């Protein structure tokens, strides 16, 4: 009977641990990136029926010593991805985990992709401020930083494209402004003068002027109303006052024609020019491959760092640290890379992965734990009553 009380106590202890695991799971049902756990149960050792440690080789003569727990097992089943509308909230659709580094340099891993840029322009976890790691071309972890990228310097005009019809019956079908930008983003207005070449019906002379100074000229030859490939581009060097020399290409190749009809003063025009002025940072976001896209007020977008991801072969190689973070228990079972590579998965921007806890399953397990605890308690009570009866018989 004393052994029965001991067996009942192992049941109480085991089911109380199971209840604690269930409580932890249900308490974290709204925790981003949380991975549920389950308690592993096992029966204790056996001895022979004489309870003296004798021969236990015959099944009919074995008795057990109760319930044992062998630790918890985490489930890394992916949780639901939920929209947040925040461009720096990210979830991994796949097996990958984001890589973090704390102030002491320790590397940890998480599925909770709730990030922000701090006052120094470094991408950090909103929960505890750990730095989010990217991967450079040599496979090394480096922090994601906006240092040196808050402003876009702009670029000078290098190509000006034209579109429209140049009348082949007019002596000077076009004489109008062309605006270009220098390396500082300052505009300069030049003049393009198109005129018919004497004694020809299919050749136009193009001249680019800065005031009255001719910067360059070229003949544009038309065949069937379209410029030939050899003459459709005009190269000109232009040096604004106090600035570096700009190499300009005047492009007539795509949408310029040479027919008699049409009003040349309204149809022929500058279609586009590729120069942009300086711009300040306006927004940041990551794409599906984990690459930072930085947008500026001048309409330009540049690529930044690429997020590092980690994955593992077995849950046994992962240890839970709390704060939605995990650590490596067996480095040989871990792999490192970037989004879009095999099993690492892709990055979902503006979404977070919520807890993978199945509440209906937890409630079912809760009932089982409660029944097991009650049964173990009843075993102890019954064994105690039997001992009391035995003592009572001896006193008589």
What's the layout of helices and strands?
Elements: H1 2-27, E1 37-43, E2 46-48, E3 62-64, E4 67-74, E5 81-83, E6 89-93, E7 97-101, E8 107-110, E9 113-117, E10 123-125, E11 131-135, E12 141-143, E13 151-152, E14 159-165, E15 174-181, E16 187-196, E17 203-210, E18 213-223, E19 226-227, E20 233-238, E21 246-257, H2 264-267, E22 269-273, E23 279-286, E24 291-296, E25 301-306, E26 308-312, E27 318-322, E28 325-328, E29 334-338, E30 346-349, E31 351-353, H3 359-395
Parallel strand pairs: 14-21
Antiparallel strand pairs: 1-4, 2-3, 5-31, 6-9, 6-30, 7-8, 7-11, 7-26, 8-28, 9-10, 11-12, 13-23, 14-22, 15-16, 16-17, 17-18, 18-19, 20-21, 23-24, 24-25, 26-29, 27-28
Question: Can you describe this structure in just a few lines?
Answer:
With 396 residues, the protein is an alpha+beta fold. The protein is 17% helix and 43% strand. It folds into three domains: 2-77 and 356-395, no CATH class; 82-136 and 306-353, no CATH class; 159-273, Flagellar hook protein FlgE (Tick-borne Encephalitis virus Glycoprotein, domain 1), CATH 2.60.98.20.
Can you walk through the features of this model?
- The chain has 396 residues and is an alpha+beta fold.
- The chain has 3 domains: 116 residues, no CATH class; 103 residues, no CATH class; 115 residues, Sandwich (Tick-borne Encephalitis virus Glycoprotein, domain 1).
- It is 17% helix and 43% strand.
- The strands form 8 sheets. Strands 7, 8, 11, 12, 26, 27, 28 and 29 form an 8-stranded antiparallel β-sheet that branches.
- The mean pLDDT is 89.
């Amino acid at each position: 009977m004393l052994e029965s009380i001991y067996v009942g106590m192992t049941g109480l202890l085991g089911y109380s641990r199971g209840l604690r695991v269930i409580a932890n799971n249900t308490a974290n049902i709204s925790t981003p990136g949380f991975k549920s756990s389950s308690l592993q149960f096992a029966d204790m050792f056996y001895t022979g029926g004489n309870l003296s440690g004798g021969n236990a080789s015959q099944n009919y003569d074995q008795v057990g010593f109760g319930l044992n727990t062998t630790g918890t097992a985490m489930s890394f089943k992916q949780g639901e991805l939920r929209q947040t509308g925040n461009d720096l909230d990210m979830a991994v659709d796949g097996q990958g985990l984001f890589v973090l580094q704390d102030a002491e340099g320790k590397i940890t891993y998480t599925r909770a992709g709730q990030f922000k840029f701090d006052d120094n322009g470094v991408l950090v976890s909103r929960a505890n401020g750990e730095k989010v790691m990217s991967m450079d071309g040599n496979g090394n972890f480096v922090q994601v930083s906006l240092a040196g990228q808050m402003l876009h310097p702009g670029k000078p005009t290098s190509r000006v494209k034209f579109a429209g019809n140049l009348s082949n019956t007019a002596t000077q079908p076009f004489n109008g402004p062309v605006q270009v930008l220098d390396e500082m983003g300052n505009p300069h207005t030049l003049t393009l003068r198109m005129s018919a070449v004497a004694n020809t019906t299919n050749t136009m002379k193009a001249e680019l002027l800065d005031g009255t100074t001719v910067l360059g000229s070229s003949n544009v030859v038309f065949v069937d109303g379209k410029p030939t490939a050899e003459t459709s581009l005009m190269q000109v060097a232009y040096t604004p006052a106090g600035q570096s020399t700009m190499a300009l290409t005047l492009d007539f190749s795509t949408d310029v024609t040479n027919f008699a009809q049409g009003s040349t003063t309204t149809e022929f025009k500058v279609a586009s020019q590729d120069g942009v002025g300086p711009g300040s940072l306006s927004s940041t976001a990551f794409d599906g491959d984990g690459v930072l896209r930085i947008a500026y007020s001048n309409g330009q977008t540049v690529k930044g760092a690429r997020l590092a991801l980690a994955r593992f072969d077995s849950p046994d190689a992962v240890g839970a640290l709390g704060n939605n973070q995990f650590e490596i228990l067996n480095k040989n079972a871990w792999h490192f890379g970037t989004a879009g590579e095999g099993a690492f998965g892709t990055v979902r921007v503006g979404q977070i992965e919520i807890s993978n806890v199945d509440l209906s399953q937890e409630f079912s397990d809760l009932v089982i734990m409660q029944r097991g605890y009650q049964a173990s308690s009843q075993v102890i009570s019954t064994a105690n009553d039997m001992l009391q009866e035995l003592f009572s018989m001896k006193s008589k």
